[in-house]
Write a structure and sequence with these properties.
Layout: H1 13-34, H2 43-49, H3 52-69, E1 87-88, E2 94-98, H4 103-108, H5 115-127, E3 136-139, H6 153-170, E4 174-178, H7 179-187, H8 193-196, E5 201-203, E6 206-211, H9 214-219, H10 224-237
Parallel strand pairs: 2-3, 2-4, 4-6
Antiparallel strand pairs: 1-3, 5-6
The structure holds uracil.
Length: 243
């Protein structure tokens, strides 16, 4: 269906110009109607779907990961078996941050794969009804402190910039700080985890919710009730249905 441009109205030059603009607009609209859109979308919408920013995020995360894999900033590089960079979706709405890799994580090079990790996976899969790969999981430290000792101030200050970059790249809707250590480091506070948990805080413009560490839940199962309350707060925040 084509339309011809209207004849000039014979009025003032301004009227003729307005007529011309109106007629061109009509032509453009009718041309759009003849266009067959894939999935009913207009071209502009399809372009947005391309999601270039996510592709850029993947690239930047890959670059950062390669940098971390060569890291010798602190003494932990001498004792680690593997670096545990972190894993998951760069477009995740929620990022879980733990303390540091344990023995299982050190062997596999992946975060939260031991007993505490299984519990975290249950929280994600059975509690939130997401897949592990829908979220992002990482730690304050990328290397295991020998014998699972507490991370030192020096190790934290050397390693934390990597985590900061990960969080800034993802910029999730919610960061879940798992346990006292992650919460205190991210929030730069010494407030005990019992007082921090269950209350949203701000981390560089991102909502951050501290909760108990899954390893603590293994030692103290009744605390699961409070963690479930915290998980529901996070689900609410990112728009997940609570069944
Ligand atoms: N505990 C953590 O804090 N992180 C892990 O990756 C595993 C256990």
């Amino acid at each position: 269906m084509t339309q011809s441009l209207r004849e000039p109205s014979g009025g003032s030059p301004r009227d003729e110009l307005l007529d011309l603009i109106k007629s061109v607009k009509e032509q453009v609209i009718s041309a759009q109607d003849m266009y067959v859109y894939v999935d009913g979308e207009r071209p502009a919408a399809r372009k947005e779907h391309h999601n270039t920013p996510d592709a850029d995020k993947e690239t930047s995360m890959g670059d950062l990961c390669r940098e971390v894999l060569n890291c010798r900033r602190c003494g932990l590089h001498k004792t680690r078996k593997n670096i545990v960079f972190g894993e998951g979706a760069v477009q995740a709405k929620i990022v879980f941050v733990g303390e540091a890799p344990g023995a299982d994580e050190d062997v596999q090079g992946r975060p939260f794969v031991g007993r505490a990790g299984q519990l975290l996976t249950d929280i994600i899969v059975k509690g939130m009804r997401l897949r592990r790969e829908d979220v992002y999981i990482c730690n304050i430290l990328k290397c295991r402190p020998p014998g699972n000792r507490n991370p030192s101030t020096e190790e934290i200050s050397q390693c934390e910039p990597f985590l900061k970059q990960q969080l800034q790249l993802i910029r999730p809707q919610v960061i879940c700080a798992l346990g006292k250590f992650a919460a205190q480091v991210l929030l730069k506070t010494e407030t005990p985890i019992t007082a921090l948990r269950g209350r949203f805080q701000d981390y560089e413009g991102i909502r951050l919710l501290p909760t108990y560490h899954p390893a603590y839940l293994l030692r103290n199962p009744p605390a699961k009730k409070q963690v479930w309350e915290d998980v529901q707060m996070m689900m609410n925040e990112i728009g997940l249905p609570i069944l």
